[in-house]
Amino acid sequence: MGDNPCWGESGIVLSRSFGEGLLAQMTKDKARAHAAFEAARTEQEKIVQAQADYGPTLCFLAMIDAGLGHKEQALEEGRRAIALMPIEKDVPNGSRVLQYFAITAAWTGDKELALQQLETGLRAPVAPQALSYGALKLHPFWDPLRGDPRFEKIVASLAPK
After folding, report:
1. Which one of 14, 104, 152, 159 has the lowest number of neighbouring Cβ atoms within 10 Å?
2. Are the beta carbons of 94 and 117 closer than 8 angstroms?
3. In the chain, how many domains are there?
4. How many Å apart are CA 52 and CA 35, to the nearest integer?
5. How far is the C-alpha of 30 from the C-alpha of 136, rounded, in Å?
6. Is 14 helix (H, G, I), strand (E, B) or coil?
7. Over 60: is that where the pLDDT of 3 sits?
8. 9 φ, ψ to 5°?
């Protein structure tokens, strides 16, 4: 079972081991989630070293570190990814980096930062698909924010009329 790119969007490709970690995280299997995220981190670290100045690869590493519980490292990587790929420089990729940084912040338990980044991402000229009503309502990426009244208000504001 290789760690081939599995899913994602544009410059951000999520690996199979990351998907396995996400699934294990959803089912509260902490040991399996940790092992899968460790495997994903090893792969992603190589990609980041090869593309050191590319924000999307770094923001994915930040998500993995958040999944591993490395809060400060994850937030630092996420901020660096935004600096490398500002929305003003590249709207599609910059907005994706913002979106994944919002997820990273949510996973680290920093709800305030997560909601702030989510709102910024939604104001982008081209909001990524992952910030659609259906994605925010159903995707497990956003589980740490569920039940927060501010998050629920954002989701409700995107509901089809």
Report:
1. 159
2. no
3. 1
4. 25
5. 24
6. strand
7. no
8. -145, 135
Q: Are the CB atoms for 96 and 122 separated by under 8 Å?
A: no
Quote the Cα angle for 80-32-3, to 5°: 60
Largest Cα–Cα separation, the chain: 45
C-alpha–C-alpha distance, residues 143 and 22, integer Å: 11
Residue count of the chain: 161
Distance separating alpha carbons of residues 58 and 77, to the nearest angstrom: 6
**What letter does residue 140 receive in the DSSP assignment?**
G
What tokens were used for 113? 């930062």
Structural domain harbouring 89: 5-158
Q: CA–CA separation, 110 vs 17, rounded Å? A: 25
Return the axis-axis angle of helices 55-67 and 30-50, rounded to nearest 10°.
Answer: 160
Q: What CATH number does residue 123 fall under?
A: 1.25.40.10
Encode pLDDT of 85-123 as tens digits.
Answer: 998 888 888 888 999 999 999 999 999 999 999 998 888
Confidence (pTM): 0.89
